[in-house]
Amino acid sequence: MLKKLFLLVIYSVISFQVFSQVVYSLGDERGYISQLEQQTQQAQSDSMRAAAYFRLSLFYRRINDLQKANDAYQKGARLGQKYPFLKAASSYYQTISQFATTDIFTLEKNIRKADSLLQPFKNAEAYKLRGVLWHTYGIIQQIKGDEKGAMDAFVNKAVPYSQQSGDGIVLGKAYKGVGIIFMNLDQREKAASYLLQSVQSEEKAPSDNPLRQVELVETYITAGENYVYLKQYKAAKEVLNKAQSILKNYPRSNLYLIYYYAEGIYFDHLNQHQQAIDSFDKGITLAKNLSALHALNRLFHAKYKALSNQKEYKKAVLVLNELIENPALLIQDRKLYYKEMYTTYAQLNDTQKAYQWAKQYITLSDSLYETKFQKDIVELETKYKNAENEKKIAVLQAAKEKSALESKNQRLLTGLLGVSSLVLLSTALFALALYRNSRKLSQQKELNYQQQLKETKQTQQIQLTQALMQGEEKERKRLATDLHDGLGGMLAGIKINLSRIAGNDGRSGSELDKILNQLDVSTNELRRIARNMMPESLLQLGLESALRDMCDSMTTDKTQISFEAFDIDTKLPKETQVNIYRIVQELLTNAIKHANASEIIVQCSQNESIFFITLEDNGQGFDPVAKGLKSGIGLTNIQNRVEYLKGKLDISSALSEGTTINIEFDVAY
C-alpha cells in the first residue's frame, strides 16, 4: 500500500446541485491532465502507474471525455491487481467511471460495494475515498427527493470519514452538502453554520491542490446566496468578492452560472434592480451557450422577479413566455409559472389573457389532481379485486376442508394398517442408523488422531525452525562481535604499528603504502560483514532505520535501491524485526546477484497487525513455473521465514520483464 505514492485526487468528481448534473470547473484541467499523462509514462513501478491512471480517469471525467476516462480506469485496474489497497480502491473508480451511464439504483449498489471493499483499510486514503462515496450517495438521495436519507449519508457517513481522512477539500464538500439541505429546508442560520465550516476546511487545504480553487469558489457563491436570504448583505458581498477575485482569472468558467445568479439576487434585494437584471442577463447568455437548461430556468425566473419588483410587467411577461418554452421544465414549475402569468397580466389590466392563463393554470392543476385521482381509483380497484378474490378463496377453502375431512377418515383406516409395518421398518432403520453412527464415530476418532498427530508434527517443526533461526542469529551476533572487536582490533593495531614504522624511517615506500591500503580495504570489508551479520542500527534505532541503512549500504553505481516505509510499528518484537530484516536482506541479495537489476524498489508497510513487504526490480526475471519457487538457497531461506511467520509469498516474474515479490503476514501471532 503505497501511501506516499497513492496521492488520490478524488474530490469534486460529482459537483452538481439537485436536479442539475453540471460538473463545475475553472477550465484549467488540461495542464494538469498533461502532467498526469507524463506520470503514467515515467512512473518507476506498476503501483505508481496504477495510481497515476486512476487520477487521470477522474480528470478525463471532469472534461467529459468518458471514453478516455474508462480507458485510464481499465489500465489502472490491471496494474493495481497486485496491490491490496489499489485493488480495493479500483472499485471506487469503477463506480465513478460508470456514473454517466448507470441508473441511480445500480449506482447506489456499487457505492455500497466499494465502501465494503475499502472498509478493512484504516489509512487516510481509504477514509478519503469512503467520504467521497457517501457524499455522492447523499446527492443521489437529494435527486430522489429523499432529504432525510441525504442528511443521514452526509452527517453519519461522509463527514466522519472525511474528518478521519484529514483532507480539507473532502471535508469541505461534506459540510457543504449538509448546508445545501438546510438551504432547501429554508433553515438559513443552520445552513450558514455548515457553509462556514466548509469554507474554513477548504481554505486550509494545500494551495497546490488542483481542485482547491474550484471548490472554494462554489462554496463562496453558495454561502453568498444564503447570506442574501438572511439579509446579511455585508457578509454576502464579502464572500462574493472572494469568488470574483478567483473567477476573474478564468473568464470561461461555468461557475459564472451560479455566480451571476447570486450576484443578481444580491442587487435585487438591495433594490438595485437594473444591476440585478444585468447580472441575470449575463448568466442567461452563458447558460444558453452551455445548454445548461436548469440553470437557465433559474436565471429566467430570477429576472422575472426583478422586473416585477420594478413593475416592468410587460418585460416580465416576455421573460415568462421564454421560460415556459423551455422543454426542461418540471410540471410543478410549469404550474407555478402559469399562475405568475395570469397574476402579471392582471397587473397589466389585460383581463382576457389573465383569464386564459388562469384557465390553463386550473387545467394543469386539475390534470395533476386527475393523475392523483386516477392513481387512487386504481388502488381502490385493486383493493376491491383483492377482497373479491379473498371471498372466492374462502369458498374454495371450505369445499377443500370438507373434502379433506372425508379423505382424512379414509386415510385413518389405511394408516392403522400401515402402523405395524412402519414399526417394523423403523426398528430396522434404527438398527442400521446405529451401526452407521458407530462406524462414523470410529472413523472420526481416527481422523481426529491423525489431525492431532499432524498438528504435533507442525508444532515440532515450528519449534525446530524457531530454534534454528534463534541459534543462527545468536551465532551471527557472536561472530559479528568477535570479528568487529577481535579481528577488527588486531587489524587496526597492525595498521598503527606499520604507520609508526613508516614514520620512524622518515619515508613511505610504495610497498608499505600498498600494505596499508590493503589493510584499509580488509578492515572495511570486515566491518561490512559484521554489520550484515548483526546490524547495530536494528538493535539501537529499530527496524525502519535498519532497513533504510541496509538499502543505502547496498546501493552502488550499478544498482539504485529505493526504500519506502509506511506505518511500521516501532514496538514489534525483536524476533519479528530480525525475521523481517533477514527476509529483505535475502530479497535484495537475490535481486543484485541473480537478477542483474539496475533499479530496485523496496516497500514495507503495516495496516494494523498485517505487515506487507514488496520488492520490485527491473532485472532479467525468470520463469517461476519452470524454475520452481523454492529453487536456490536464498528463496528457500525466504520461504522458511515466511512459513515460520505464517505468511503468504507471491512471486510474479517473466523473462526480461523483471520480478515483483509480495509477502504478507500477521505480526500479531
Automatic annotation (TrEMBL):
Residues 478-669 form the Histidine kinase domain. InterPro entries: HATPase_C_sf (IPR036890), HATPase_dom (IPR003594), His_kinase_dom (IPR005467), Sensor_HK_TwoCompSys (IPR050482), Sig_transdc_His_kin_sub3_dim/P (IPR011712), TPR-like_helical_dom_sf (IPR011990), TPR_rpt (IPR019734). GO terms for molecular function: ATP binding; phosphorelay sensor kinase activity; protein dimerization activity. SUPFAM superfamilies: ATPase domain of HSP90 chaperone/DNA topoisomerase II/histidine kinase, TPR-like. PROSITE patterns: HIS_KIN (PS50109), TPR (PS50005). Residues 370-397 form a coiled coil. It is an enzyme of class 2 (transferase). The chain crosses the membrane at residues 412-435. TPR repeats lie at residues 50-83. Gene3D superfamilies: 1.20.5.1930, Histidine kinase-like ATPase, C-terminal domain, Tetratricopeptide repeat domain. It comes from the Bacteria. It catalyses: ATP + protein L-histidine = ADP + protein N-phospho-L-histidine. Keywords: ATP-binding, Coiled coil, Kinase, Membrane, Nucleotide-binding, Phosphoprotein, TPR repeat, Transferase, Transmembrane, Transmembrane helix, Two-component regulatory system. GO terms for cellular component: membrane. Its EC number is 2.7.13.3. PANTHER family: NITRATE/NITRITE SENSOR PROTEIN NARX-RELATED (PTHR24421), NITRATE_NITRITE SENSOR PROTEIN NARQ (PTHR24421:SF10). This is histidine kinase. It comes from Xanthocytophaga flava. The lineage of its organism: Bacteria, Pseudomonadati, Bacteroidota, Cytophagia, Cytophagales.
